Each structure stands twice: as structure tokens, then as C-alpha cells.
Amino acid sequence: MMKYNIKRGLVAGCMLMLSACAKDILNRKPLDSINEIVVWNDINLVSNYVNYFYSTMESGFKRTYYLSAATDNGMDGLANDIYFIKPLTMDASWNPNNAPFNGLYTSLYQNLRKANDFLAHIDGVAGDSTLKKQMKAEVRFFRAYYYTELLNYFGDDPIKASGAAAPSGLVDGYEDALGVAILEKAQEYGKDSLSIARSTRRQTVDYIVSELDAVATMLAQLPASYTNPSGRITHGAAMSLKARVLLFAGRFKAAATASKAVMALSKYSLYPDYKGLFTVKNNTECIISVQHNNIASERGHTYDKDVANGSMSGLAKECPTQNLVDDYEMTDGNLPGASSLYDPQNPYANRDKRFAISVGYDGAVYRGQTLTLYDNGFDILNAGLFKTQTRYLVRKACNESFNFLGDATYGSDQNWLLIRYAEILLNYAEAQNEDAGPDQTVYDAVNSVRRRAGQPDLPSGLTQSDMRLRIRHERRIEFAFEDQRFWDLRRWHLADQLPYRTIYGANIKLSGSTKVFGAPVLLETRYFGIKNYTFPIPASELQSNRLMIQNTNWK
């Protein structure tokens, strides 16, 4: 495995970007006077340096776009994100010079260098040895997290043709394909080479897993008082990220074992209220979350405004599709087309309760008003450019009582759930089913998630293939608008296939005083080529690193 080393004066830049919770300490000196010597001689400043790494975790609420709008679950409003989501879904012309995530590649490697610089200095800092051990483990966690992000976005995918994958989603040669360049040590500028070859996917995953194992061990040995504060990385967090990494790598036996180890901690549980799960901070289901507050200039965000319709002065940046709505079961456990409970002229009645919690639909009361999403309804006529084309709105995780048109110094404050316990259960179910078939433990994991939603247990006697479809369906419903679909369709190698690129909306008209629901309306047929299963290495990186190799289908 290729690794390399460069040491730079990165601390001052980090300190300028520390989260607001650190400002009381930072105010001891002007920000522009804080330098490396000061930082590494003050354990309080070092502790606040760690807060910077917490601020780098990717929150789906803090982006200017929503990944679900680039899947068959969602669609952005007419005028939104034309420079980001549209290229991901409708544009075949972007390339290594202008690809949507080029900036992310750069920022992740910048953060890796900062993490390595921290780890090179921390042992020499005077102070609480237990606190130093905790901080060292946390920064090693973030380093593993950065590599995970790089691998997800930029790891090579050797798929050769549409459908050329095993039923599990794996393709031949996947682990031997190129992963990412690994920088394990702080670099010495002017001494170490700036050129480094990429490790393979197998080597990259092995490195991430070994780091997370070490982090989990270190954090498990700490007194509870060090890891109790809400939002801190714990040994369960490290174990959970490891389970996800192994599942995404297709190492199903290891992923099942890792997921089961998290379950055996008996530390996490399904939060009983699916709606409250997303607004009650740091609840029992939360394993890793990005912490937010309601101060717009600090950790506040604009999610509530982003998903509201233009008729409410929102931006409609992600709107549920008819594709997704049709996948919400009826309360008898059947899909609408197979259920006697389904009435095509009252299509939203008798649905899985996660539907009404996640989706705003015509006739629903949303933000204190009844939605009129039929043709020429108030919410369509008065939305301007920022209207839902699908005739649905995202409701999941919204704080409908927050007035986003009020004092601009305040923002939405819901935490972003990066990993929650339901994912561990469904990760286990998928991995165990792929490795051993649908044994009782697979049923138990899936059914526990379904029972929280009030849905019937899965029928007995399912084949491995049947169970695979059920698990994928459950993931779609349970994790709608949580970024999971973006990655699931890629790792299952389904995203290029026509059913996942053909986007539909509702067709609702008013005949007198009666609403008439017609056949769904085709809104988009999206572009997704084989090369889009990964993103290209930025052209600037290829120019500066003579050993860098472009991803297979981007050459």
C-alpha cells in the first residue's frame, strides 16, 4: 500500500474555522495571532482544534443541494440547483475539469493533512493524558471518515456494461480496482514527494478498517465521562462506520459480523417515534450525528426553507417523486397495486405511517395549511419558480413550527443523522442475507424496523433473492431523504437502468369540487452512464501528481 508524508503549518487555518463552541477559549488571543507554537503548548487550544474536525463531517442539511434530488426518490424545483443537481441527473458533458465534486476531493485531502499534522504533534502536548488519548482517537476516526468519503466518491468502479454485476451488486475485480492515495503521516514540505500512487480498493478498505478497530479500542478504554457529551465520537460510532464500510465493499461476512457487534453493545435502540427521531436530538437511535444549533452564522441551516414550496416562500430543493410514493406499502403490508385497501381516487389513505411523516401530499396539513397541489391549486399557482413539479413536498425531519421568514439570525437546528441504529439493523440484514441467506436473524432485523412503523412482519419462506428485494425496499422507505439512496443505487449497480432514471410526478386535477387522480406524469428521463458510478479524479490532481491514474471509465 502506497503512503506518503508532508508537514505544513496548517493549524492557524484550522483555528480560524473552529466551531462557535470554541470561541470563548479562542478569545484569549486574537485569532490572527494564534500560531503553531501557541497551540501546541496549550491543551485547551488543542482540544478546540479537535472541534474543527467535528465541523467537517458532511451534513445533508448544510449543503446547497440535496443528494436525494439526484435519485429516483427526489427531484429539485424548476429553478433550483441548476449548476449542481442538473449536471448530476441530466448532463453528460461534465468531465475531470468541471465535475461536481472536484472541490470535495480537494477539501477532503486538506482535512487529511490537518489530521496528520495533529497526530504528529499531540503526543508532545502537556496535559491530561486521558484527554489526549481521546483526542487522538477522535482525529484518527475523522481520518478514517475522510478516506471513506474519498473512496465512496472517487474509488474506481470497473463495471464494463449495464447489468454486468452479480445480484448482490458486486462486479468482477471490484476490490482490485484503484481506491485512493493514502497519506498516513504528516508530510515534510520540500523533503517528501508530492506524487503518490493510489492504493487498491482492498488496501484502502483494509486501512480504514484497521484504523476504526484501533479507534474503537482506544475509546472503549476511556472513562464514560470523556465520551458522554452529546455528539462526541464513541467506540460504537467507530464500530458502526466500520460496518458500513465493509458492506459497501461487498465483504458481506465481515459486514454482518461488524454490524452484529454493534447490536451486541445494547447501547442503541430504535427510537419509538419515527417522526420525533429526526427532531429529538441525540436520542437512543443516534450513533453519529452532525450537531447543529439555531444560530445561522454558526451551525444553523436552511433545511426547513429549502424543502418548503414556493407558495410558502420556500425553495422546493428536493421533492418526493411518484416513484417513491408508489413504494410506500399499505397498512396490510402490500404495495398499492396488490392491496384491497388501495383506492386510486384516495391514494394516500391506509399507507405505511412513514409516508405521511416523510411526504407532504395534496390535502395534507403542512406548516399549518392544507396543501393544494392539484393543477391550478393555490400551492401551484402561487409558487413562482420554486414549485414542486412532482406535486409532493419533503416533510421528513421538518420543524414545521419554525418560522424561516422571521429573524434572519436564526436558522433551523435539526441534527443530521449520519448513522443511526436502523441502518445497523438493515446493514446486518443485507450482509447476512448475501452471505448466508434469509435466516431468522435476517427476518428479526428487518421486522424490528417494520414494527416501529406499524407494518406487518415479512412473510415467511422468502428466498435469498426475495429477501434481497425486501431489504432494498425497506432501505428506500426507512432512509428516504437521508442520502442512503444515492449510494445504494450505485453500489447495487442499478442507477444506470431505465426504471431508476425515469422520474414521475402525480397527476391531480379538479373536476368541479372533485379531485381526479390520473396516470402519473413523466417529468424526466435522466442521464446516467456507466462512468457515473464513480466520479473522476480532478484534472488538477492528475497534473500535479505524476503517479495519479484516472478512473477506468473516465480515461
Automatic annotation (TrEMBL):
DNA damage keyword on record: no
Protein name: Putative outer membrane starch-binding protein
Keyword Signal set for record: yes
GO cellular component: cell outer membrane
Assigned protein family: Belongs to the SusD family.
Occurrences of domain SusD-like N-terminal (ranges): 48-247
Keywords: Cell outer membrane, Membrane, Signal
Residues in the signal sequence: 1-22
Domain RagB/SusD residues, every copy: 295-554
Phylogenetic placement of the source organism: Bacteria, Pseudomonadati, Bacteroidota, Chitinophagia, Chitinophagales
Cell location: Cell outer membrane
InterPro entries tied to this protein: SusD-like_N (IPR033985), SusD_RagB_dom (IPR012944), TPR-like_helical_dom_sf (IPR011990)
